[in-house]
Design goal:
With 356 residues, chain A is of the alpha/beta class. Chain A has a 6-stranded parallel beta sheet with strand order 2-1-3-4-5-11, with helices on both faces. The longest helix of chain A is centred in the first third of the chain and has 26 residues. Chain A is 42% helix and 19% strand. The longest helix of chain B is centred in the last third of the chain and has 28 residues. The chains are: A alpha/beta (356), B mainly alpha (354).
Chain lengths: 356, 354
């Protein structure tokens, strides 16, 4: 009798404990801070798709859109940290300093900063995607499909992230077509449909018959559609905005990472780290290939995609030369993450200079 | 029957009443919009206008947000009162921030009580220099100051872009478009531990007092007023119009430049591309809502500041799109301009027997 009592007491304790743990896990609330509107069909839109995945996994989420990188960011972060959110994802580079500042004041709240490099407190993690892997796919398609051998590229800011993309794209294009040239126009914006459209027009006027972009609006693919040239979608599948022009898109797929990290907070296993995932981990996704892409190119793309995912192929495999012909990566070697993180020189085949 | 009759002269009482009316109508229309969007209107208005400033921290954030708006609007009131349409305060703010930020970077990792005053002064001078361009072009080349000052906003933002991307970018910062963090000696001191409100608020208050004094106690203020009513009269009275135009632009530019200093040496602590979320443009609403009166501008800056904070709170707690904050700012200006109709016209009730 006595034994039975103890057993039932213990089992009910265990039951209660599981209940509490489950309740705590359910109670975890995640917040997302966005630079743009959720309807931009680019950067912010994709983060919001990721947030919805977190909701679907059974967690409560909050978001604030259109938060400028001015003094306002810090207030929004503090308010989110103060109002019962357990983990806060800050999804623009310019939130880096405010994120670290507010993280210091709220050691029990986890902060996840996208694309930054500062992790000044144990509750700050950073994450980014290896978009350059996706750009190697685009380069392969562009190199195979260009007739004029001039490829246009609308770039945002001369930071390593963007230079890396240009280089990866150009290297892959050269592998299938050694004669191609990449022409760059710097738009100095992440999102400005007007400026982006102007840049695309200028590139088309200079003979580019394929336009790649590292800015977020759908303006460029729409200009390409009108001009009858090809283009690639950025951040989300932009096919519906320019069905003829868009050959494929590189999609940012944040959902799995967000769900994993929020679950980690719920389980108490969250740790500080710097995540840099690519095609293999599913953070970078290639949209469906357009029917205009011939089958031989298609199979090349599929193979490269599989090899990048498995790690058999690295997008930066030597020999790689810079514009002046100096060796950047020796034959048989691959660029390490440190080199990639600080990449500030064009490879051979890119036209023009990096704005200084 | 109701008849609309033109007033003999604008009503003074209504002049100060219409801003209140405009705010009231904005609240009513805002509530209606919330209702249509499917939110409880009173709850939404509570999260918009009361919750964000319900505690000490919230109130300090309100003051922090209102400081640049008040400072710029005070400067603009000098221009607007005297019929000079300076639309480019945002550019003057940006250029002021550039100059003072440059000086702050020059003193990087240096100590000294003299550094902060130099940094502040540099910002004021930067704003003045930038405002002098439309002023000089207007007085000596008859250009339209609205266009020139507005276009210069975009020029200033491009200059800032160039500097933070290129020569001034943080050498340890992987080429991201931002400068180093300024040293503490170049930062405005905080007023309270744990709050972001900084000494820049005293600059705003000083500007308020100064503008009140100049408007109502000096000959210059009188000249400005006369020029505002009628340029021809001012000319006939022999006022030196050109000098005054340049002076009001300089004052306005200095105020905007100081607002820029407040942002970068206050809460931000460095130069990057987004020094101001368009304070220079929003301050135009503040200036008019405050009836170009120093005290009115203080209240107006607080009212407009809360639309920013409220929009954030409403989105966090009620999932109301944050851009409603801008809708509120637009509505305030719209209702203000619309109710100005009452300044010049009145309704006359005419009995049916007449």
């Amino acid at each position: 009798m006595h034994k039975l009592f103890i057993r039932s007491f213990v089992s009910s304790l265990v039951f209660l404990f599981t209940l509490t743990v489950a309740a705590v896990a359910k109670d975890v609330k995640a917040a997302f801070v966005y630079i743009g509107p959720t309807g931009d069909h680019g950067w912010t839109y994709q983060h919001d798709v990721g947030r919805k995945a977190v909701e679907a996994a059974g967690f409560k989420t909050t978001y604030v859109e259109g938060v400028p990188e001015s003094a306002d960011a810090e207030r929004v972060l503090r308010q989110l940290a103060n109002s019962g959110h357990d983990v806060i994802f800050t999804t623009s580079f310019g939130y880096m300093n405010p994120t670290n500042k507010v993280a210091k004041e709220f050691p029990n709240v986890k902060f996840e900063h996208a694309t930054g490099y500062k992790r000044e407190h144990p509750n700050v993690a950073t994450y980014a995607a290896r978009f350059y892997e996706g750009r190697a796919i685009l380069g392969t398609i562009a190199g195979s499909m260009t007739k004029s051998n001039v490829i246009g590229y609308v770039a945002s800011f001369p930071i390593p992230e963007v230079i890396r993309g240009i280089n990866s794209f150009t290297l892959a294009a050269q592998k299938v077509n050694p004669n191609i040239k990449t022409k760059i126009v710097w738009a100095f914006t992440w999102y400005d449909p007007g400026k982006e459209a102007e840049a695309a027009k200028a590139l088309i006027d200079q003979g580019a018959d394929i336009i790649a972009q590292h800015t977020d609006s759908t303006a460029i693919v729409q200009i390409a559609e009108k001009a009858g040239v090809y283009a690639f979608g950025q951040a989300s599948d932009m096919d519906k905005f320019a069905p003829k022009a868009v050959l494929t898109s590189v999609e940012n797929n944040w959902g799995p990472y967000y769900v994993e990290r929020v679950k980690a907070v719920a389980n108490g296993t969250w740790n500080q780290k710097d995540t840099w995932h690519g095609i293999g981990d599913g953070m970078v996704v290639i949209s469906d290939l357009d029917s205009a892409i011939p089958s031989n190119v298609r199979s090349k793309v599929k193979k490269l995609q599989a090899d990048l995912a498995s790690g058999k192929v690295h997008a930066f495999t030597g020999p790689i030369y810079d514009q002046k012909g100096n060796l950047m990566v020796a034959e048989g070697k691959t660029a390490d993450d440190g080199m990639l993180a600080g990449m500030m020189t064009y490879v051979k085949g890119v036209e023009g200079d990096i704005p200084k | 029957m109701i008849k609309i009759v033109k007033r003999d002269e604008p009503s003074r009482a209504i002049f100060f009443f219409t801003p209140v009316l405009a705010i009231f109508l904005t609240l009513v229309a805002g509530g209606l919009i919330f209702y249509i969007l499917g939110f409880k209107p009173f709850e939404a208005l509570k999260f918009f206008f009361i919750v964000p400033i319900a505690d000490k921290y919230g109130f300090s954030e309100l003051l922090l947000k209102a400081t640049p708006l008040c400072l710029i609007a005070i400067g603009l009131s000098f221009c607007f009162k005297s019929n000079n349409w300076n639309i480019g305060a945002e550019g003057q703010l940006t250029f002021g921030a550039i100059v003072s930020g440059g000086v702050a970077l020059l003193f990087y990792e240096q100590e000294g009580f003299y550094i902060l005053p130099i940094v502040i002064l540099a910002g004021a001078i930067g704003g003045m220099l930038y405002a002098s361009i439309p002023a000089i072009l207007k007085t000596y080349f008859n250009t339209n100051e609205i266009l020139v000052s507005l276009m210069l906003v975009y020029v200033s933002k491009l200059i800032l872009d160039y500097l933070v991307v290129g020569p001034w970018s943080n050498p340890e910062g992987f080429n991201f478009p931002e400068t180093r963090q300024f040293s503490d000696s170049a930062r405005l001191p905080l007023l309270f531990e744990g709050l972001r409100i900084h000494a820049g608020i005293f600059l705003a208050l000083a500007a308020v007092v100064m503008s009140w004094f100049i408007f109502y106690k000096t000959y210059l203020g009188f000249q400005m007023k006369v020029s505002g009513f009628s340029l021809k009269t001012a000319k006939y009275a022999g006022y030196k119009g050109k000098k005054m135009i340049i002076l009001v632009f300089l004052i306005s530019g200095a105020c905007a430049g100081l607002a820029g200093v407040g942002e970068i040496t206050g809460p931000i602590g460095q130069l990057h591309r987004e020094v101001s979320p368009d304070y220079g443009f929003t301050a135009i609403i503040v200036a008019f809502l405050g009836r170009l009166h120093p005290v009115g501008i203080i209240f107006a800056s607080l009212v407009v500041a809360i639309t920013y904070l409220g929009a954030e709170t409403a989105q966090i707690f009620m999932q109301i799109p944050k851009y409603t904050g801008q809708v509120f700012q637009g509505m305030i200006l719209f209702f203000l301009l619309a109710s100005d109709y009452l300044l010049f016209f009145k309704f006359k009730f005419i009995g049916s027997n007449k």
